[in-house]
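Contributing new complexes? Match this layout with FO1.
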Amino acid sequence: MSSNGQVVLLAGGVGGARLAHGLQAHLGPGLTVIVNTADDVERHGLLVSPDHDTVMYTLAGIDNREWGWGLAGETFAAADMLGRYGEETWFRLGDRDLATHIVRTARLRRGDRPTVIARDLQRSLGVAATILPMSDAPVRTEVRTDDGWLAFQDYFVRLHQEPTVHEVRFQGIEDASATPEVEAAIQAAEAIVIAPSNPFVSIRPILDVAGVAAAVQGARARRVPVVAVSGIIGGAALKGPADRMLVSLGHEASALGVARQYVGLIDLFVLDRIDAALEAPIQALGMRTLVTDTIMAGDPGRARLAGEILQPALDR
Ligand code: FO1
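Output block (do not edit by hand):
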């Protein structure tokens, strides 16, 4: 495995952050994470960028491993005070996390680009890899439920992912384009990895940003391997609603159902040993397979899976 390789990871929150952490252990600054920003939300006048921040805190080693979001040892004194003022606090912003949103929002108001602000936040926390927002333009995921269209965090946090999702749309996607940094990272990549994140609400918005899917296809044309990792194991998502979304959006809740979302885009699909029986039908979609233990237990588990993915991807 090459340790100098430039690798790009397309990622959402928790699953993406764990794999990013494992990849960073091998690649250090050779890793660039292109992160979903369609989960972003305004709370109390501040812009919160959950997937970016989950990846950033994880790569800085200060993430809250119990929750899968936010900071270790976090407190909520400010949220409690906001509640006393009658503010809605179902989306809980921790005291230390608030500092990130205050700096981000103040700099946005001064006219700085989200990509530059994100890079400066990461540098302040000593993150070795680079985390790039998928676009500098605002994109917001909405899901259609029996009660109509809902903003993503209303569905995800306020309603605990309970409503059935019939449709997904990305407000603002028509005006979003890949930044020069995103294009340059994909151009320089020796391998592109799609994290075990939700294909519909974490990976799709990244691919739908103008220029991203085309850049990935351009990389494939240069024989750069594109690898996706299944976030569905034994028919269930490790975290989040991906398994239920697969079904309600008309697909199969399995690694095969995930692989079908990436037909024509990837060369290698990584699935769990539990799903080994799906290897042949996945190969029939026109992709190679790697069957391994995809559950990333602790730091060693993250680095192990990352190493197993990098081996076939970089040793061509
Ligand atoms: N998730 C929750 O389940 N409850 C919360 O109160 C919550 C607050 C929150 C604050 C900042 C942040 O960056 C993330 C936060 N998340 C919370 C997680 C977030 O909703 C998810 O990570 C996603 O957007 C799905 O990837």
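Reviewers usually confirm one structural detail per submission. For this one: The first helix runs from residue 14 to 27.
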